[in-house]
Design a protein that fits this description.
The protein contains three helices and three strands; from the N terminus they run H-E-E-E-H-H. A three-stranded antiparallel beta sheet has the order 1-2-3, with no helix packed on it. The model has no long low-confidence stretch (mean pLDDT 90).
């Protein structure tokens, strides 16, 4: 998708609670993010997970994959 298409979808489906930036993040690795144009950023506003273990941590990804292949969820009923 183009930048314009992504921004249009974001405007259509987001709640509008947070102000939007004129960038679209495509991927992350460790403490870094890349936009759709390949520009690299340091993620200074990452959430708890990415701040603690980094984006796309291979150990975490492997553990999540293993769990999803075993059991996705289990309710208390």
């Amino acid at each position: 998708m183009s930048f314009e298409e992504i921004k249009e979808k974001e405007e259509r489906y987001s709640t509008g609670v947070y102000p939007k930036r004129d960038i679209v993040i495509k991927k992350g690795k460790g403490a870094y993010l890349w936009d759709i144009n390949g520009k690299k950023y340091v993620d200074c506003v990452g959430g708890h997970g990415s701040a603690n273990v980094g984006h796309c941590n291979p150990y975490v990804a492997s553990a999540v994959k293993e769990q999803l292949e075993t059991l996705t969820s289990c309710t208390e009923i």
